[in-house]
């Protein structure tokens, strides 16, 4: 397997990382090593044992329907048979982070890009770029949920429009992705549960986002989220909480142009701020918070 072509570095929501302008590739399933399959099994087993009581039921149902725990790295072709039949989405293998407009175009056409490579055994707890476990285990199970699947397509279409408007609009939209798709919580009758991929694919942050007194937990509000900076190097200081996936999808129905115009005059909140207009579920103790700049 020749190393993927690194085209350039780009400031993205995960910091200054290589960005591949390439399109999609075939999943090199036969090239995965025994160690690669063992890394998948280790990460899967660890999260599967932890997540009941932490992840929302829709996520757990998706994991079960895909059979992600059947042993070894799943074959995208197998997953796509289930996924296409359920919501018309499909997984496509990519080299890694894509330029925003390439990424948005995939989402707008119900294609979710998944990095074909998996982290090394010494990177189990943190790596800077999204690997196969983050993308596949974190993001794909919820694409079986029809409402969330619609939200992700709408997000992609919104991304194409934001990209055409300019960098400020794009920043607002990236914050929306960050605080929902990557780090979102949802209220359930049983209490707060996780749906964000960046959380469910991380053992430490799964526990922290639900059990810790340190972060704020604030009710989702579209413009509040779009004007809130975030952290890429630590656990989140604030988690935004939706009441349902329908609420999230409904919030993205209107055209965002007037919102971008309003937000252009509004100073962004810091990652740890609590505003007087917030619906505060938990006011964090701020224990252990980093003091350097947000993104
Ligand atoms: N590319 N492959 C890939 N996966 C992502 O999650 C991703 C991306 N490019 C850009 C990006 N995410 C973020 O900027 C989103 O907020 C748009
Ligand atoms: Fe992600």
Automatic annotation (TrEMBL):
Keywords: Iron, Metal-binding, Monooxygenase, Oxidoreductase, Phenylalanine catabolism
Enzyme Commission number(s) of this protein: 1.14.16.1
Listed GO biological process terms: L-phenylalanine catabolic process
Pathway terms, separated by semicolons: Amino-acid degradation; L-phenylalanine degradation; acetoacetate and fumarate from L-phenylalanine: step 1/6
Entry cofactors: Fe(2+)
Domain of life: Bacteria
CDD domains: pro_PheOH
Domain Biopterin-dependent aromatic amino acid hydroxylase family profile: 1-295
Protein name from the UniProt record: Phenylalanine-4-hydroxylase
Lineage, highest ranks first: Bacteria, Pseudomonadati, Pseudomonadota, Gammaproteobacteria, Lysobacterales
């Amino acid at each position: 397997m020749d190393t993927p072509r690194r085209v350039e570095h780009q400031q993205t929501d995960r910091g200054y990382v290589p960005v591949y302008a390439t399109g999609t590739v075939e999943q090199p399933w036969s090239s995965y090593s025994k160690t690669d399959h063992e890394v998948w099994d280790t990460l899967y087993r660890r999260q599967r044992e932890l997540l009941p009581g932490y992840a929302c039921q829709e996520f757990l149902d998706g994991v079960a329907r895909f059979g992600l725990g059947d042993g070894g790295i799943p074959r995208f072709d197998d997953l796509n048979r289930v996924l296409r039949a359920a919501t018309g989405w499909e997984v496509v293998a990519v080299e890694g982070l894509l330029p925003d407009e390439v990424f948005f175009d995939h989402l707008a056409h119900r294609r979710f890009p998944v990095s074909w490579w998996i982290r090394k055994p010494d990177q189990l707890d943190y790596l800077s770029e999204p690997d196969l476990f983050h993308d596949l285990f974190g993001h794909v199970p919820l694409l079986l949920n029809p409402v969330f699947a619609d939200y992700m397509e709408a997000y992609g279409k919104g991304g194409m429009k934001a990209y055409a408007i300019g960098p400020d609009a794009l920043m607002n939209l990236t914050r929306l992705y960050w605080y929902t798709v990557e780090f979102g919580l949802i209220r359930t009758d049983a209490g707060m549960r996780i749906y964000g991929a960046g959380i469910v694919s991380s053992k430490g942050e799964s526990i922290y986002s639900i059990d810790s007194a340190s972060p704020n937990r604030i009710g989702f509000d579209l413009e509040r989220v779009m004007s809130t900076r975030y952290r890429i190097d630590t656990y989140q200081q604030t988690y935004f909480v939706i009441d349902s996936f329908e609420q999230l999808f409904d919030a993205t129905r209107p055209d965002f142009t007037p919102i971008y115009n309003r937000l252009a005059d509004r100073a962004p909140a810091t990652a740890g701020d609590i505003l007087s207009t917030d619906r505060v579920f938990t006011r964090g103790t701020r224990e252990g918070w980093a003091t350097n700049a947000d993104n």
